[in-house]
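Researcher: I'd like a structural prediction for the single chain below. Treat it as a standalone chain; there are no partners to consider.
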Amino acid sequence: MNSIIPFTYESFQIRVILDANGNPWWVAKDVCEALGIQNPTQAVSRLDDDERAMSDIGLKGEVNIINEPGLYNFILRSDKPEAKQFKRWIVHDVLPAIRKTGSYSIPGAQAPDYLAQLRRQRMQINEECALIKAQRRLERTAKD
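Model: Treating it as a single chain, here is the predicted structure.
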């Protein structure tokens, strides 16, 4: 988990990291700021072990990250006004639609597949890195 994808929710910058399987993990501090939660470490400690992790994001060092179920738990547990609009959408629109139809979609809209785009970009970067490493190995071998 090392490529950071920044998203903006209202005026908040929320960083997302994709794991090796392409699953998104949100930086807990960013989500907490957007939800008006003061103590991210305490908030994360309330999640189940499989909903939270630590990740090294470079200059900032290790940070708490949460997966999709952890994100929903954050939002659904929060009594903050900042979470109310999202919570209402989940419980009034998304969950009933899934129960009734087996899926949730916006009528007439086709959502862009951002994760597929990100996976393709990550694969391209990995291929480029492998080529660079191979080229460096050849250069070192040629020097010897």
